[in-house]
Structures are given as C-alpha cells and as structure tokens.
Amino acid sequence: xxxxxxxxxxxxxxxxxxxxxxxxxxxxxxxxxxxxxxxxxxxxxxxxxxxxxxxxxxxxxxxxxxxxxxxxxxxxxxxxxxxxxxxxxxxxxxxxxxxxxxxxxxxxxxxxxxxxxxxxxxxxxxxxxxxxxxxxxxxxxxxxxxxxxxxxxxxxxxxxxxxxxxxx
Length: 168
Hints:
Layout: E1 8-9, E2 24-28, E3 34-38, E4 42-47, H1 64-73, E5 80-85, E6 97-101, E7 104-108, H2 114-130, H3 138-141, E8 144-145
Parallel strand pairs: 4-5
Antiparallel strand pairs: 1-2, 2-3, 4-6, 6-7, 7-8
C-alpha cells in the first residue's frame, strides 16, 4: 500500500480571471519530500529547434525578444508559463508555437513577427479573462493547424469535425 499523499493546492482564486501570487501546490516527490510549485493555467511553448528560426535553412528568425519582453510586460508569468523549447516536431511548418490552456492544445505556425506575438498574447489573455478555452480570433485562424487527434479545433471548424466517427 502506497503512503503517497495527493497534491495539495493551497490557494487558487475563486475568480479565475484574477491573478494571485499564491497559486501554489505542494507536490510529494518520490523521495518523500514536499516541493512547492506554482499552479499554472497555461503554457506557451515557442519552438527554436532544428528548423524554427534557422535562417540558414531559409526560415525566418523566431522573434524571441518579443516573446520574452511581452510576457514580462503583461505580468502573466504566475498564470501562464513561457518556454523557449527545442524542436516541437512539425519542422516543415517553422516558427511553431504550442499554446496549452486549461487542457486545450492550440498549435500555431509561421509566428514570425512581434505583431503576431502580441496577437498570441492577446488571445491567451482573452482565455484568462474568460477563465476557459475560447476559439481562436480571426487574425490567428490561418496560422492554426491540427497536430494530434485531441487538439482543439479552430473557431472556423465545426464541432463535428472534432468528434469521434459516428458521434453526435
């Protein structure tokens, strides 16, 4: 019988649209120690792997400074984490971004400019305000792609396109 205790969330605000500096979770490690981590609503992963941003291969540079500076300026780090990652996989598309928000996976491609970076952050903040996944705004729809069966569809897609065969 395992003596493992479940994670304990100490403080999550009732209104998920408001930031709180103490959204902390106690995690029991395999060694029996309790480690404190921040409970996050979402995560933005920006690819800078083998192809994304590789100008020698003909791809546009990844606007890394925009990703970092806008994230800091909007002060959302306690709610949505930013990771500049290695290869995320869909290399032919280049400058790929994966937004994970409350279980929704939203893949974007060709995010090449500071303007597009701000549009992605606007979208993330719209979900933070709503406290849930919201469909992509029209200015980001053409950059959306589906990578996995469980990805969240774009707002132009119908729910039937993302349902299991035969499901209604």
